[in-house]
Amino acid sequence: MNDISTEAKKILEAIKLYGPIRSTELIKMFRFSSKTIHKHLLRLFDEQLIKKIGVTPKVFYIVNTDVDHDFGYVGKDEQIIEQNYIYVSPNGEMFRGIHGFWLWCEKNKFDFLKEKKTFIQKFKLIQKLKKNGLISAKKIILSGKNNLYLDNIFFSDFYNIAHFGKTKLGQLVYLGKSSQNKILVMEIARLVKPAIRNILEKYEIKLICFIPPTIDRQIQFLDVFKKSLKLNLAEIIASKIPSFTKVAQKTLRNLEDRIINAQKTIAVNPNQKIDGNILIIDDATGSGATLNETAKKIRNISKENIKIIGYSVIGSFKGFDVISEV
């Protein structure tokens, strides 16, 4: 701090007082040239005294309040958190790994070492449920009902883990959809593609179907997801029936309502050729009603004895839950 110029210190004080603030606003405030302001901002940034938030072209500067913390020896167990945890602050900043976990503990006044130990234990238990990166959820969807038209359904992960909140994939799906962030959706595709490949090979999948979106968005999650996966399979088209009032299936809290919603709002063209096993893909599954009802419509069309597998990036831990955020 002592090596920073007087001008830079004045800019730092202005950021403390008025931040978040843009460089153009600092230029007007101090009547410095753009080159001079950015030179001082770069120095303050290098010293980790400030940080940037926002997205180009709307970039803002704020004081960096993140405290350096010695997390001790980062061993094999700690690497679990480093590779599988994401914390999102109330103002939308994303922090990955041990640092994010520590910030979450600080915010909630939790004991870091105690929570770290518990998280690692729960993570390892969930990993035991996985085979080839997949959780089989056939026995828990639709609250254990027998009228299943899916031969199996898989998740890559649960949406959340106990009081720790969203899993890594849960956070990425939530942020990818809510912020319509292509980069995050592409990251998800990269993470789960090996597991999807396992399904394609094990069940000799010939056709693929993507669940259509309910809510209109400029960037649709599954559109980006599909392009990023590059599966190169023939596609069965499922359509969402338009209506004046759109009720997102994931907002319905009653299982029967979810089933009715899926029955009445998803259509599959009966003239499509269905001559092989099918994988139906969705982003998030609560009850499994959407995947199951889509499978039912496909079975009504097919004259052959086919297998239909459901896949969702994330799913409910309890078997029936309302994942209304996504």
Summary tags:
326 residues, alpha/beta, Arc Repressor Mutant, subunit A, Rossmann fold, 7-stranded mixed β-sheet, two-stranded antiparallel sheet, 11 helices, 15 strands
What does this structure look like?
The chain is an alpha/beta fold and 326 residues long. The protein has three domains: 6-63, Arc Repressor Mutant, subunit A; 76-129, no CATH class; 132-315, 3-Layer(aba) Sandwich (Rossmann fold). The protein is built from eleven helices and 15 strands. The strands form five sheets. It has a seven-stranded mixed sheet, sandwiched between helices. Strands 1-2 form a two-stranded antiparallel sheet. A hairpin with a 2-residue loop joins strand 1 and strand 2 (58-63). Helix 1 packs across helix 3 and helix 10 (255-265) crosses helix 11 (289-301). The radius of gyration is 24 Å and the shape is elongated.
Radius of gyration: 24 Å
Give the integer mean of the pLDDT values.
86
CATH class of the largest domain: Alpha Beta
- Separate helix tally: 11
Number of domains: 3
- Main sheet overview: 7 strands, mixed
Widest sheet: strand order?
5-6-7-15-14-10-11
Tell how many strands the DSSP assignment holds: 15
Structural class: alpha/beta
**CATH architecture verdict of the largest domain:** 3-Layer(aba) Sandwich
Elements, N to C (H/E): HHHEEHEEHHEEEEEHHEHEEHEEHE
Shape descriptor reads elongated
Question: DSSP strand (E) fraction?
Answer: 15-25%
Poorly predicted runs = none
The CATH topology of the largest domain is given as: Rossmann fold
- Helicity range: 40-55%
Spatial gap, N to C terminus? 44 Å
